[in-house]
Design brief:
By secondary structure, this protein is α+β, with helices and mostly antiparallel strands. The chain is built from eleven helices and 19 strands. The protein has a domain of 211 residues: RlpA-like domain (Barwin-like endoglucanases), CATH 2.40.40. A hairpin with a 5-residue loop joins strand 1 and strand 2.
């Protein structure tokens, strides 16, 4: 449900999740602490395919009922995945799923500007990637030292040579990829409550408690719950309906106010965003925590009830539905009990799961059990826009398993249009330091 924010444990798609996941994933994630959201897929008729290496044309928007736009997909022909042995049924990491040597980087046909953007994103990851424990089983911290040292002073104009020199490509498991998209939404907001701005945006409450269940049982290691203390008991925290009804009023938790409840609902799904202030300024907000309640995808609810058809289940289509009858829309939104708390971001942002800024059209969310966070990723898909080189810098609750990615498109209408309907399939390769590749595939 990742999507944006300062933690990798909150939305579909940290950030952060990231209304862009395919409809079957709308049920949310399997961890105890749920994510802020899942993203419904747009369904747009596809024109004839174009080769994966072809230069994408500018996206072609189509108007929605409320004046928004969704990008018309630009089809492409993906590279086939490499032949691979069957993935063991009990595999839970990249190393256990099987690692196959991929082609030389130079053969991938990466455009210079794309390589340059990926190098800039990789530099941001370097301090973290060298000290993080890699749970994928693919790399060790010291493996990154050579490339990170070289990246400091490497010319962006020759970024392709950098990746070619310091990295080898590998395929994880079957190599078949599925990619969705997320973005940093921008909605109307105000730092103070005023006419037209009355939807409260709360910071994390002091009585919201995180409980690490691993402290009580080895079988529960890595699982966490949230709640509040009532007397001598830990109970569930207030759900969306209770918060909307005023459960947190009068506590001074408001950091800002949104103008549109439905737009703010979807900003919570993304986990981070921007507020356009009445004076023309911008306030950036990021994930601070979540109430611990399970996420319910309202897109799936409306589809199951027949209130929306498949072609209407894009983010914009759901917004149109919610706004058509505000009372009905509020009731539907309250069927998702999850609530996300925010803080103001004053530095570079938005932040991904590594606690570092993510970059539009260069950062992807991935499952750290299958992709070392900070590693470059090559995507070749049946949609041209996301094809090319990315860097894994975020995570998301619905972004699970090998070769599953959520592409970040930045902020603005173009980003919203592309991310809001992104659902692409094809193949993926990871770029790993040559020391890692030599250890994983000695014969190479």
């Amino acid at each position: 449900m990742p999507a944006l924010g300062s933690s990798g444990k909150r939305r579909m798609r940290v950030f952060g999740l990231s209304l862009v996941a395919v409809l079957p994933l709308l049920a949310g994630c399997a961890s105890v602490i749920p994510d802020a959201g899942s993203r419904p897929a747009a369904s747009t008729p596809a024109p004839a395919a174009r080769p994966s290496g072809a230069t994408p044309r500018p996206y072609q928007p189509r108007p929605s009922e409320s004046g928004g736009v969704a990008a018309r997909p630009i089809p492409a022909t993906p590279r086939p995945a490499l032949p691979a042995p069957a993935v063991p049924a009990d595999a839970t990491t990249a190393a256990a799923s099987g690692v196959i040597a991929g082609p030389d980087f130079a053969s991938l046909g990466i455009a210079p500007e794309q390589a340059s953007a990926a190098l800039a994103a990789f530099r941001i990851s370097c301090p973290s990637v060298q000290r993080r424990a890699d749970v994928s089983g693919l790399t060790q911290g010291a493996d990154w030292a050579e490339s990170c040292n070289a990246a400091k002073n490497w010319a962006d104009s020759d970024a392709a040579s950098f990746f070619s020199r310091y990295f080898g490509t590998v395929q994880i498991g079957a190599g078949t990829a599925f990619v969705t998209g997320y973005y940093e939404p921008e909605i109307a907001g105000s730092r103070t409550k005023r006419p037209g701005y009355d939807v409260p945006i709360y910071r994390r409450p002091a009585d919201l408690v995180d409980v690490d269940l691993g402290q009580f049982s080895d079988e529960l290691k890595g699982r966490t719950i949230r709640g509040r203390v009532e007397g001598s008991k830990l109970v569930q925290y207030y759900d969306r309906a209770a918060i909307e009804s005023g459960a947190l009023e009068g506590r001074g938790l408001e950091i800002a106010y949104a103008a549109d409840a439905a737009e703010f609902f979807f900003l919570q799904v993304q986990g981070s965003g921007r507020l356009r202030l009445p004076d023309g300024g911008v306030m950036r907000i990021g994930y601070d925590s979540q109430n611990g309640r399970g996420y319910v995808g309202i897109g799936k609810l409306l589809l199951d009830r027949g209130e929306l058809q498949r072609g209407q289940a894009s983010m914009q289509g759901i917004l149109d539905y919610l706004r058509a009858d505000p009372k009905r829309g509020a009731a539907v939104m309250n069927e998702n009990p999850s609530w996300v708390f925010f803080r103001e971001l004053t530095g570079p942002g938005p932040l991904g799961a590594m606690g570092l800024p993510v970059t539009g059209r260069a950062s992807v969310a991935a499952d750290p059990k299958y992709v070392p966070l900070g590693a470059p990723v090559f995507l070749s898909l049946d949609r041209a826009e996301p094809n090319g080189l990315w860097v894994a810098q975020d995570t998301g609750g619905a972004i699970k398993g090998a070769n599953r990615f959520d592409s970040f498109w930045g902020a603005g209408e173009d980003a919203r249009a592309i991310a809001g309907g992104m659902a692409a399939r094809g193949s993926a390769l990871l770029l790993l330091p040559r020391a890692s590749v030599a250890r994983l595939i000695p014969a190479r």
